[in-house]
Amino acid sequence: MLHMTDMTEARPAPQTASGPSAEPTLRVRGLTTVFRIGRREMPAIENVDLEIAPGETLALVGESGSGKSITSLSVLRLLPGAISRIGGGEVSFRDREGRVRDLVSAGGEEMRRLRGNHIGTVFQEPMSCLNPVHRIGDQIAEPLILHLGLSRRAAFERVVELLAAMGIPDPARRARQYPHELSGGMSQRATIAMALACDPVLLIADEPTTALDVTTQAQILRLLQDLQKTHGMAMLFVTHNFGVVAEIAHRVAVMYAGHVVEQGRVADVFRHPRHPYTRGLMTCVPQPGDALALRRAGQALPTIQGSVPSITDRPPGCPFAPRCALAVDACRAAVPAMEDTGDGHLSRCIRWSEM
Amino acid sequence: MNQHSPLSDARPLLDVQGLSKHFPVPGGTPVRALDDISFSIGRGEVLGLVGESGSGKTTIGRSILRLIEPTAGRITFDGTDLMTLKGRAMRQERRRLQYIFQNPFSSLSPRMTVGQILTEGLDLQKIGTRAERLERARTALSQVELSPDTIDRYAHEFSGGQRQRIGIARALTMAPEFLVADEPVSALDVSVQAQIINLLRDLQLRLGLTMLFITHDLGVVEYICDRVIVLYLGRVMEIADSADLYAAPRHPYTRALLDSIPSADPGADRKRITLSGEIPSPMNPPSGCVFRTRCPHAEARCAQAAPPLEEVAPGHLRACWRPDVAGQPL
Question: Which of the residues A51, A172, A266, B235 has an alpha carbon 20 to 30 A from that of A235?
Fold first, then answer.
C-alpha cells in the first residue's frame, strides 16, 4: 500500500545545457505583460527571462500578486485581450517535431493547435476545469479526437489506459462517470490525464495541488514526477509553496511584484538564497523543530514586515525595497539588473554579495 | 519538557464529552461528521485541531459556540452546560466565546465600516454607551496593531493580513475568554501568515486567552499549540503535547500526515511515504477503525471494532489496535 521514494534517486538531473539536445523546450526573454486599469497601462510582469530544458522542471514561486500565473497565462496566450496585452519580449517554444515557434506572434488558431496537444495544462481547481455535464472519458478523449484524429473507439481505449496510468482504480468505470462523482484528488488525476493525452513536450501546471489535502498533494506530486520521468517533458510548475518547490523542481524562479528576483538550481537557491525576499520567505515558514525552539525561547516567528504591493501600487526601483532590511537609496532609484552570482544562480539584488 | 498548560490539572475551562454531529441526508443514511468526540481545554491553553478536509475540525469549533446544533454530547464552559442554555442566557454566555473565521474577505461585510463591524456585537448585546463601544473598538484596533483611523474605513480598503487583524479585533471587542480560531492564516500570503501567528500568540499570552486553534497546516501548530488533537473522518486518532506529537507520533495516520508535508529542504535524504487511496465518504465510513482502509498496519480486528482512545504515555492518547506499531515510523 505504500510507495517509497528515495529523494536522491527520484530526481535525476535533466539533460544539461551541454548535452546533445541542448535546445530548451521553452525560452522566455524579456517578457512584459501589461494590463489596462482605468486609463492607464500597468505592467503585471516585467522583463521575465525563463528557460526550461526537456525533462526539466522549473518552479515559478511567489505570493499572490507576484505575477507567477500571469507569466504562465502569457506563455499560453490565455489572457483576455480586452484588458491585457503582451508589451514586449519573446516566447520561443520548441514543439514535438522540433520546430521552434514564436508564441508572442502566434495567431489564435495556431495557439489552439498547440494547447492541449504540444502543451498540456493543469490548473488549481480540477472541478472548474472539468465540464460538469460531460462524462470524464469524453472530456479526456476530446483532444485525442481533435488533435490526433483518433476514432471515438480508439480514443476511449486510450482514455482508459491514461486513467490507469494516473493511478485511478477501475478506469473503465471512472471514464463513464461525471465529474461530481469523483473526489478532488481523482478529478485532478483526470485533468492530468487530459493534459497528457496528446503526449505534450511542455506541461504547465499552475498550483495543481493547492486545493488538495496534504496526503493527496503528496500523491499528485509523486504522480507528476513519475510521469515526467516516463514522458521526458519539460514542466513549468507554478506554486506559492516552497516545500513543494523543493520536492518537485530542478530549478526555481522566485517572483515578486512582477519581477523574477532570483533564479537558480533548487539546491543552490535553498541553501544560499541570494535575494533578501527569498531568504525572508524561507525563514518565515516554520520548519518542524525550529518553531518549537523559538516558542520555548519565547521568541516570535521571523516575519517580513508589510505586505505585497498591488499592481497599481508598486514602488519605483526594486519592488521589495520598502519591505527590505538591506535597502539603500540605490535600491529605490532603479530596478536592479539580474546578476549572475556564480554558476547560473541569478539575483536581482545589488547587495547579493553581502548575503 | 512538558508543554502542558500550568492549569491543565485544575478544572478545565472547556470540557467536551461525547460530541456527535450527524447531518441528515434526504433518502439516505446520515453523514456522521463527528462521532463521540471528547476533550477538554485548560484555562490559558491553546489546543490545536488538525485534520484534512472532512475530518470535522470546523464542525467541532462551530458546535462549541452552538453556531450549529450538535446531535449529542455535553459541552461545559467554566462549569456551565452550554447545551441547555437558551436564548438570552446563551447570548450572554457567548460573549465569553468568540470565533475568528478563515476567510477575511468573505467574513467582513463590504457595506459596513470597520467601526460598525467592531461594535456590532456590542450593539446586539447592548453593552455600554455608544461612546464606550467606540472606545472598545479603538482599544481592539490597537491590540491588533492597526491605527485608530481605521475605524471609519471599509474592509475592502485593506490587504488580507490587515483584514484578518480586523476579524481578530472584532472578536476582542467582546472581551472574550475563549477563542475559536478557524484556519486564521490559511487564506493569507506566506509572508503575512507569520505576522498573524505572532499576533495571536502575543494576544493569547497577554490577555490570558484560551484557544481552540483549527488548522490543516502542521507547520504552525507546533509554534502556537500546547496540545494537539489529530482528527480523521470525524474521529479522534491521537491527542498529545505538540512537542511529543512531532517527535514521537503514536498513530499511523499522524505519522503519514507529518510525512506528507513537503520539506523545504531539497537535500533532505529521507524516505518519503505517501498514503495510498483517499479519505472515504463520511456517508459510508469503514467499519471498525475509520483509518484502516489506508493504514499499512491494518489487520482483521481493525475492521471489527473501533479502537478506544487510550493513554499510551502521560497525556498522550491514541486510538489504534496495534500496540506493536506505537512510536515507530511506518
Answer: A172
Residues in chain B: 330
Q: Which residues pair with B239 in a beta bridge?
A: B229, B317
Mutate to test the interface with A, among B188, B191, B325 (most CBs of A within 10 A): B191
The position carrying cell 462549569 is B79
**For B15, how many CA atoms within 13 A lie in the half-sphere containing its CB?**
12
Q: Vertex A146, ends A205 and A178: CA angle to 5°?
A: 65
Cβ–Cβ below 8 Å for A215 and B266: no
| Whether CATH 3.90.1170.50 fits B14-96+176-261+271-325 | no
Taking a C-beta distance cutoff of 8 angstroms, is the pair A122, A188 a contact? Answer: yes
Whether the CB-CB separation of A91 and A28 falls below 8 Å is answered with: yes
B198 CB neighbours in chain A (<8 A) are 300-301, 303
Q: Tell me the pLDDT tens digit for each residue of B91-108.
A: 899 999 999 999 998 999
**Where along chain B do its domains lie?**
14-96+176-261+271-325
User: Which tens digit of pLDDT belongs to each residue from A77-115?
Assistant: 999 999 999 999 999 999 999 999 999 999 999 999 999
- Does B189 contact A240 at a Cβ distance shorter than 8 Å? yes
E strands along A155-224, which residues? 202-206
A 10 A CB-CB count for A108 gives: 9
ipTM value, please give it. Answer: 0.83
For CATH 3.40.50.300, the residue range(s) in chain A are: 23-249
Amino acid at A118: H
Window A:147-166, CB contacts with B under 8 Å: none
Alpha helices in chain B (DSSP H): 57-64, 87-94, 114-124, 130-143, 160-172, 190-207, 218-224, 242-247, 252-260, 300-304
Is-above-0.90 flag for pTM?
no
The CATH architecture annotation of domain A23-249 reads 3-Layer(aba) Sandwich (3.40)
Q: Could you give the CA distance from residue A234 to residue A22 in angstroms, rounded to a whole number? A: 13
B223, B257, B278 member nearest A301 (Cβ) = B223
